[in-house]
Amino acid sequence: MRFRLTPRETSFYDMFAASADNIVTGSKLLMELLGADSSARAEIAERMRAAEHAGDDATHAIFHQLNSSFITPFDREDIYNLASSLDDIMDFMEEAVDLVVLYNVEELPKGVEQQIEVLSRAAELTAEAMPHLRTMDNLTEYWIEVNRLENQADQIHRKLLAQLFNGKYDAIEVLKLKQIVDVLEEAADAFEHVANTVETIAVKES
């Protein structure tokens, strides 16, 4: 690690960790949605909305700290990108839950549970990785695994699209379900963006 003569603002580490922990909360709500009937989904969506607002607050706190700090632990652009990508994950997960409720989807297509399982694992890995930003140690396996998970998510997404267009669903239902599985795929992409940003930071700091 590069030796620094100047002090650094360290509260960013705690804020990134809090943001990632909140994403784990969101992923658990997605898992809960899978086993819920339509009457319980609205309440889950409310809790997801609250988690998304908490994520927004965490992101705004990072941006405020960034704007008010003279010295930062790593490049300002990387701090901004990392905070934004973490926020994107929560936004996509909240959107997916909201769409399920708004569209009154009775049954999600087989394979969505695999999408959500991938997101849940990526959330756990991301939350475990954020504290390591302090030392930049033990991060390589994190971004390799998240990239592998994103590739897995791509394959699941393609299979889901093939299933949606196999003639089983009517046109309106296809539009609804496709939007949901597309948003879940965007969440997987956002996890990869976080991992790629962490890799960029680690390379610069090495």
TrEMBL record:
Q: Which InterPro entries match?
A: PhoU-like_sf, Put_Phosphate_transp_reg, UPF0111_domain
What name goes with this protein? Phosphate transport regulator
Family of this protein: Belongs to the UPF0111 family.
**Pfam families in UniProt:** PhoU_div (PF01865)
What PANTHER family does the annotation carry?
A: UPF0111 PROTEIN YKAA
